[in-house]
Specification:
The complex is a heterotrimer of chains A (177), B (250) and C (456). Chain A is α+β, with helices and mostly antiparallel strands and 177 residues long. Chain A contains four helices and four strands. In chain A, 41% of the residues are buried. With 250 residues, chain B is mainly alpha-helical. Chain B has a two-stranded antiparallel ribbon. The longest helix of chain B has 31 residues. The relative contact order of chain B is 0.10. Chain C is mostly helical. Chains in contact: A-B, A-C, B-C. At the A-C interface, strand 2, helix 2 and helix 3 of A face helix 1, helix 6, helix 8 and helix 17 of C. Strand 2 of chain B pairs antiparallel with strand 2 of chain C.
């Protein structure tokens, strides 16, 4: 059984309106669903502006996990070290919680921030060098529409894109490989 | 109106400062602290936000104003409340740590009476209600977006702040020998009697009564502002989605 | 009215990447000038290290003077960045867009410069490094975490790491633009840093969330940093320092000087890079209003510290305030401090014409920072000068030339850092400018059109 080869097409549009219009046309004439396309823009647009699927992510777990890790390190660094080298200063107890809270707090926040940055990179699927189609014109204001489809339907998709006013259509390997 | 709000805010800070200074200027242990007025300003704002949430929820429910008060103002105020909860901790910790680190007998005596002496139990309960419970709850996004949970947080904060006031004022005032150079003997806790509780209940109900009478006379929502919002913020279609536009006139 | 120039993406790219991709001839001139200023400080430090801390005017009991003042000053300046970018991001203030990155970059370089001061202050810093790194864990000796001197580095480290990563994570989309616009080794350089950014909805959504989430996380750190710097003083039983209000007083002072520094920086950027379309009078107006609020709040805390210091009428406290206000040379400094930190700038900022004039904002913000530098000096030095009982070794502090060199050099270092950053990376966020074009909307009411924004 011959498996249909999947292929990606990147259509460049001069405006967001044209891109959204083209996506409507693609859905109508080529049966492209939100699972099959991606939009590349040079700035954020309101969510769902192109009828794309809402972004599912678990970013909020990262700062919590990071805060827990950071807090543990802070705890170890304060209580652990003071118990390992007990030296009374200024009549304060060896395990002086109010004074140690500060280092624990900084540890917690550092952990939360580090994990958040990792989380952002992970959830944005970065780094992703050379993944998928791209064109430098996108950062000049063009809106790129990437459609992933089977190779037999590439001509249809390309025609619909050009009819909808694509300035250029680039073909390439399938998305994500 | 912007100008008036600026002065209003300054008047608010001024009022709280002068009021707190009444206490702080007297050399009573626990009151004589430079941070005291600022602490009061923060606590006042916190109580104000909590009361606003409570009143909004009640007016919305019993005034049948569901169409006019959406969840957005609750959301906005709860964000502010989260910030104020953090600030509450910050101001109290800054005061506590400075005294704790100084460790002169005078400072330790103040901490003993306020924190781990006769008022330890009250402090623990207060800390739970004014800080720990609201803080953890407000961190959770769905809580901030829900009217019911916001009301719970607001009640917790108000209760905690009331205890906080009781701890700060009655602790300092129960000092027995006012001629002592510093707090040498730690007095026991002040136990309220029936009259105290009646005064408390009366004061709270008095405030509620005056408020209720006031909303009989004046509309509880600013009518022209509601109308202005209808003009200045609307949902517009944006490509394939809808977006809320807020006008920003000068 | 708000001005709203309509700019195409192409023009935004060209304007904001111009200095990054092309090197004008004046770049070398400015570089030389800043290098000379920094060099002055560098020579002062080399002289200090080769000769010893005796070249400074410090002696018992004033063991902290210019260096710690300068340290507090720069940590203070570093508070602007995050204050501006985080608070304005969280409140979705539209005018933040051109301001954020410059403010964050100022944060990082000011903080790094501040962090150098303690190392320089110990004189023979290699000995400290030998104590601290590699730390002698194997003999079971650990630092005293109950000391503010350990809190300080932990806070500064967290803040520096956090804000550097913050800058980087919101820089990624702009790095992708630089990658697309450049050639040769620059393309490789920006390409690696941009991590293969393409700009699909997922990446943009995460980018927006990153701004909000990181702002929320870094705000509590920012408050803690200057509080901990204040604890360096407030934890000690030195009269005039041991005050419960010190932490918020320092934080608000830091914001006051920091936001002023951002206004100075924005004026310089506008002048230097001809960014008239991006940094507009209404941005200065908004900064001015913010400054007005912060300035009054700072003055409020200053009064709290002042009044409560005096009201208890403890001898030592009163004497210290007496020294601060009435004794030469502090009396003169106190007058200049009050004039420049509050009495002159606040009425000036109340005037709309001043807030909307770039030159006036530039001058006013410089005034504020002169005042705030003096504020730290007046807080610190007279309190140390106090003669304790049974103290027989006592001298008056006189700043010496190497200390002036250090102060001037630190300004050179921060300026050099920000300038070189602006050469390598776009200092005005490119994608934020494009976003503001996308999110601009209008509402028609009868015959007028009111400008509006789409809520994020």
């Amino acid at each position: 059984m011959a498996v249909a080869q999947r292929q990606s097409l990147l259509g460049l549009f001069t405006s967001a309106d044209a891109a959204a219009e083209a996506l409507d046309q693609l859905e109508e004439k080529a049966g492209i669903t939100p699972d099959d396309f991606d939009v590349l823009t040079s700035s954020p647009y309101p969510e769902g502006a192109f009828g794309e699927k809402p972004v599912a992510h678990r970013l909020y777990i990262f700062p919590i996990a990071g805060a827990l890790c950071g807090f543990s390190v802070g705890l170890l660094l304060t209580i652990g070290t003071q118990m390992a080298y007990p030296l009374v200063t200024h009549g304060k107890p060896i395990i002086a919680i109010p004074a140690m809270l500060i280092v624990m707090y900084e540890g917690t926040m550092l952990g939360a921030i580090l994990f958040t940055i990792l989380g952002i990179l992970f959830e944005s699927r970065l780094p992703a060098f050379g993944a998928g189609l791209y064109d430098p014109r996108i950062s000049e204001g063009y809106v790129g529409v990437i459609v992933s489809t089977t190779s037999d339907r590439v001509p249809v998709v390309e025609r619909v894109m050009r009819d909808a006013g694509a300035a250029d259509v680039i073909a390439g390997p399938p998305r994500g490989s | 109106m912007t100008l008036l709000s600026a002065f209003y805010l300054m008047a608010y800070v001024g009022a709280h400062t002068v009021f707190a200074t009444d206490f702080a200027m007297s050399q009573v242990p626990g009151w004589h602290s430079a941070i005291f007025p600022a602490l009061h300003g923060i606590d006042g704002l916190q109580a104000g936000c909590a009361t606003a949430i409570l009143v909004m929820a009640l007016v919305r429910r019993f005034g049948r104003l569901e169409a006019y008060i959406s969840v957005d103002p609750f959301w906005g105020v709860s964000k502010l409340m989260l910030a104020l909860t953090l600030l509450w901790m910050y101001f109290h910790f800054a005061e506590f740590l400075t005294l704790w680190y100084g460790r002169t007998p005078r400072e330790i005596a103040v901490l003993t009476i306020l924190y781990w002496g006769p008022y330890l139990g009250l402090f623990i309960v207060e800390f739970l209600f004014v800080w720990l419970i609201p803080f953890i709850m407000l961190l959770i996004f769905p809580v901030r977006r829900s009217i019911r949970w916001n009301v719970v947080v607001a009640l917790s904060i108000l209760f905690g702040l009331l205890l906080d006031r009781i701890r700060l004022y009655s602790a300092a005032f129960s000092v027995e020998n006012v001629f002592e150079h510093m707090l040498e003997t730690i007095p026991g806790p002040y136990v309220p009697d029936v009259v105290d509780l009646m005064i408390l209940a009366g004061a709270i109900s008095g405030a509620v009564l005056v408020y209720l009478l006031a909303v009989r006379l004046v509309p509880v929502l600013a009518l022209w502002e509601v109308r202005q919002a209808l003009i200045f913020s609307r949902a517009i279609p944006y490509l394939r989605t809808e977006a809320a536009v807020v006008a920003k006139p000068e | 009215m708000q001005e709203r120039p309509v700019l195409s993406d192409r023009q935004i790219n060209r304007d904001l990447l111009d200095f990054v991709l092309h090197t004008p001839i004046w770049f070398w001139g400015v570089l030389l000038l800043l290098g000379l200023v920094f060099g002055a400080g560098f020579i002062a430090v080399v002289y200090l290290i080769s000769t010893g801390v005796g070249v400074w005017g410090e002696n018992w009991p004033v063991m902290w003077a210019f260096e710690i003042t300068n340290f507090v000053f720069w940590v203070g300046i570093s508070h602007a960045g995050v204050m501006i970018s985080a608070i304005l991001r969280l409140t979705q203030a539209e005018w933040r867009r051109p301001v954020t990155r410059a403010a964050e970059v100022l944060t990082v370089f000011a903080l790094a410069t501040a962090a150098l001061h303690p190392a320089v202050h110990v004189g023979r810093f290699w000995r400290v490094i030998y104590w601290v790194f590699p730390y002698d864990f194997f003999r079971g000796i650990w630092p005293n975490v109950r000391s503010p001197l350990i809190w300080d580095p932990s806070a500064i480290f967290t803040y520096l790491t956090g804000s550097s990563l913050f800058i980087y994570s919101v820089l990624i989309p702009d790095l992708a633009v630089a990658r697309d616009r450049s050639t040769g080794w620059r393309r490789t350089f920006y390409g690696i840093l941009a991590l293969g950014w393409r700009g699909n909805p997922r990446q943009w959504r995460l980018q927006t969330l990153a701004g909000i989430l990181l702002s929320g996380l870094i705000l509590p750190v920012f408050v803690s940093v200057h509080s901990i710097v204040s604890f360096d003083f407030a934890m000690a039983l030195v009269p005039g320092w041991h005050s419960t209000v010190f932490a918020p007083y320092f934080v608000i002072g830091a914001v006051w000087s920091g936001v002023a520094a951002v206004a100075t920086l924005m004026a310089i950027l506008r002048f230097m890079f001809k960014l008239h379309n991006y940094i507009r009078p209404d941005h200065f107006d908004a900064l001015g209003r913010l400054l007005l609020v912060v300035g009054n709040a700072w003055f409020y805390f200053f009064l709290l510290d002042f009044i409560f210091g005096l009201y208890a009428r403890e001898d030592t406290e009163v004497q210290i305030w007496q020294a601060r206000v009435f004794e030469w040379p502090f009396s003169a400094l106190f007058v200049i401090f009050l004039l420049t930190a509050y009495i002159l700038p606040v009425p000036l900022l109340m005037m709309r014409s001043v807030r909307r004039s770039v030159t006036m904002m530039f001058l006013t913000s410089i005034l504020i920072n002169i005042g705030m530098w003096l504020e730290r000096y007046i807080l610190i030095v007279p309190a140390m000068q106090y003669k304790q009982t049974l103290q027989f070794s006592w001298s008056v502090y006189q700043p010496q030339l190497p200390e002036w060199g250090l102060v001037i050099g630190s300004f050179g270092l921060v300026a050099l850092g920000v300038f070189l950053f602006a050469k390598v990376f776009p200092i005005i966020p490119i994608y934020e400018q494009k976003e503001s074009q996308v999110f601009a909307a209008e509402i028609k009411v009868g015959k007028v059109t009111v400008p509006g924004v789409i809520r994020e």
